Amino acid sequence: MQRLEAGFALFVTLLGAVFGVIIAAIALSVTTDNLMRNFGLGNIPWLNEVAEYLLYTGTFLAAPWALRMGAHVRVDILVSNLPRAAALRLEVLLDVLGLTIAGLLCYYGIEAVHDAWVADAKQYKMLTVSEWLLLVPFALASLLIAIEFVFRIMRARRIVPLEESVLEKSGF
């Protein structure tokens, strides 16, 4: 199971790195487009739309990495003021809640992908894009986030008994 978790960690780290490259590519492309316009060389008309889709997709696909790294938005006043064992139990409870929500989002995301596929729905802007392609990152990210919550719960289950044994030895 640890090999599976290590493989998953590598995969989500790769997704985070890919998003970093995407951000750099967008920055370079927008700068290039700006320079082209300023020098009268035309422009790249579809760039804003592609950048929009890449930001949307990358944000969702980097979310599991952010969760794994603890780089997500978090208010931990309660957790940080609890005794260590209670804080770990609360973390597990919150991870179970996160798993449940991510699972529901994944389910509804897959349903939305299916509905868009069946309806052959399209986004019409400068480019024409099938809507299901835009919904897949949401469903996939929700699945990956749910998997990360499972790994977080498993890690906490390994830590809680160790913490409890330390507390018992110290007289609590």
Counting helices, strands and paired strands, the structural category is: mainly alpha
Total of domains: 1
Helix fraction?
over 70%
What fraction of residues sit in β-strands? under 5%
Q: The biggest beta sheet, please?
A: 2 strands, antiparallel
Strand order of the largest sheet: 1-2
If helices are DSSP runs of H or I spanning 4 or more residues, what is the number of helices?
A: 5
Taking pLDDT < 50 over at least 5 consecutive residues as the criterion, the unreliable ranges are 165-172
Distance between the termini: 32 Å
DSSP strand tally: 2
| N to C succession of SSEs | HHHHEEH
Rg over CA atoms: 21 Å
Average residue pLDDT? 89
Q: What is the overall shape? A: globular
Write a concise synopsis of the structure shown.
The protein is mainly α. It has five helices and two strands.
Can you give a write-up of this model?
This protein has 172 residues and is mostly helical. It has one domain (2-169). 81% of the residues lie in helices and 3% in strands. The chain is built from five helices and two strands, in the order ααααββα. The protein has helices at 2-38, 47-69, 77-81, 84-119, 131-169, and strands at 122-124, 128-130. Strands 1-2 form a two-stranded antiparallel sheet. Helix 1 (2-38) runs antiparallel to helix 2, helix 2 (47-69) runs parallel beside helix 5 (131-169) and helix 4 runs antiparallel to helix 5 (131-169). The longest helix is centred in the C-terminal third of the chain and has 39 residues, at 131-169. The protein is globular, with a radius of gyration of 21 Å. Residues 165-172 have low confidence and may be disordered.
